[in-house]
Design goal:
Layout (H helix, E strand, L loop, with lengths): L2 E14 L11 E4 L2 E6 L1 H17 L9 E4 L2 H8 L6 H13 L15 E4 H13 L9 H8 L3 H10 L3 H10 L6 H6 L15 E3 L2 E3 L6 E7 L13 E19 H7 L4 H17 L6 H4 L7 E8 L22 H19 L3 E8 L10 E2 L3 H13 L1
Parallel strand pairs: 11-12
Antiparallel strand pairs: 1-9, 1-10, 2-3, 3-7, 4-5, 6-9, 7-9, 8-9, 10-11
Helix pairs in contact: 1-10, 2-3, 2-4, 4-7, 10-13
Length: about 400
Amino acid sequence: MKTLIEVHVLQNFAPSNLNRDDTGAPKDAFFGGTRRARVSSQCDKRAVRQFFDEKVREGVFSEDELAVRTKRVYQAIVDALAGKRDPAETLAKAKIALSYVKLKAADDGKTQYLLFLGRREIVALTTTIDECWDQIIAAEESDEEKLKGKAKGKAKKAAAKSAPKEVQARIESAFDGGKAVDVALFGRMLADMPDKNQHAACQVAHAISTHAVEREFDFYTAVDDLKPEDTAGADMMGTVEFNSACYYRYAVVDWAKLVENLQDDMELAAKGLHTFLQGFVIAEPTGKQNSFAAHNPPEFVAVTVCHDAAPHNLANAFETAVRAKTGESLTRKSVEALVEKGNALKKAYPRNCQTFALNLTSAELNGFGMVRDSLDAVLEAALQAAQD
């Protein structure tokens, strides 16, 4: 039986610039014919991964239950063998060993692209290189000469073809996801090893505002504290773009896929799901927070557990932009719109599901879900329903 866990969040942020585009402006998008504030899914996932790191410090996760996204895997291997092997020789061996699986070093000594690797995978690579040290050798000079005239793709294949088969097999087997919770949730793509890709157990939508927004500008000046003249002139000035928005945020997790990606470790999957849901609700993007300090917890959270049913993203509740009159709460009106859309879809497309909600607004839920009085209570009920 396929089980999906959906999380819907409505979160009103005070003036802020949480997620910037290449010009420094808050990201946005057209939806329903009006401009909306937007926070990318990549930004939200980054915030969740940083939340996971906090949980390592709190002892919820061990470090080897998470992954790193890096171009510096060669240096990580060198650091792991520091004091046991010569650093320069280890670096050379690491480059040769990874070329056996078509991963080549760029001119700056890093990998050619970011790799999302479980920490256990890096340990397995390090162990293989250490134990197979004498077998890891560069291609014969004559072969290298032959490779000079070949295209990059053909050179990678030739390097892999020259590898000792036993060493190559051990290195390939090291890329098993490493039971890293974040790789299991968010997936990864390895361009040179497509068979080592991991399909994500989680999908995250771009957060969009429930209402239309206009960009605003903050003109600022700064003065030189040590300036000797007693004048009122500014020594620096500029503008910062910002907005204020009530965001609808949505994510869905495929429970069976999460368990599969974590190599059937149910306990780790349950811990990963709980921490993901907690982090998705609590963790905030960090963009310009030193200037705006927009730390505004969500006032509405709903977690829906569905069995053998399709997911329902409720963003279309806001296809017509929410408008709040003077004295009305934008968040409350957004909750009312979401509840109306959710109940309408539930009637039109019945699903075998349970919804648990935290509602800090005075909006009526009209059967949308079972209300709990805290986020912990919502997550506890949802996790129980997911594993029943």
